[in-house]
Design a protein that fits this description.
The chain is mainly α. It has helices at about 10-40, 45-75, 85-90, 100-130, 130-155. This is Dps family protein.
């Protein structure tokens, strides 16, 4: 008989999912900080529209950071919670002193590529573990971010 956690999922599978979620959490924290920087530092003719859009995006990222951390806790693991760890793990690097809207949007699109790749991997792992809660969370993120990629790409052209 399998060893089950508090929500009835296999402990080993849940631990693997939680590790992947912590990796995603680290990347989201870097994404969030980059978005804040874009919001604060944007300049130019598109200032007003991009300033508001970046605020919308960082508010959404902040909610996702919390949801991911809470999902890690739900799987009976501990979410990473230091920037030292985030910096060690994250594929998304800090974007410093970006004031140009096109450069900021390009950075966002690159980050979304990383996030989507990680979310799809988690979706697969969680699906194999019958972890519907994580599957639903990742599915929601993927749908939303695919649309965002389309919209930001259309904005750039």
């Amino acid at each position: 008989m399998k060893n089950l956690n508090n929500i009835g999922l296999d402990v080993t599978s849940s631990q693997q999912t939680a590790e992947e979620l912590n990796d995603l959490l680290s990347n989201y924290q870097m994404f969030y900080m980059n978005l804040r920087g874009f919001h604060w530092n944007i300049r130019g003719k598109r200032f007003f529209e991009l300033h508001l859009k970046f605020e919308e995006l960082y508010n959404d990222a902040l909610i996702k950071v919390d949801e991911i951390a809470e999902r890690v806790l739900t799987l009976s693991a501990t979410p990473l919670h230091t920037f030292k760890k985030y910096l060690e793990i994250s594929e998304i690097e800090g974007a410093e002193n970006i004031t140009d809207g096109e450069a900021a949007i390009s950075s966002i699109l690159e980050a979304l590529t990383v996030l989507l790749k990680k979310e799809r991997a988690i979706l697969s792992i969680a699906g194999d573990a019958n972890d519907e809660g994580t599957v639903a969370l990742m599915s929601d993120y993927i749908v939303q971010q695919e649309k965002l990629v389309w919209m930001l790409s259309a904005y750039q052209n």
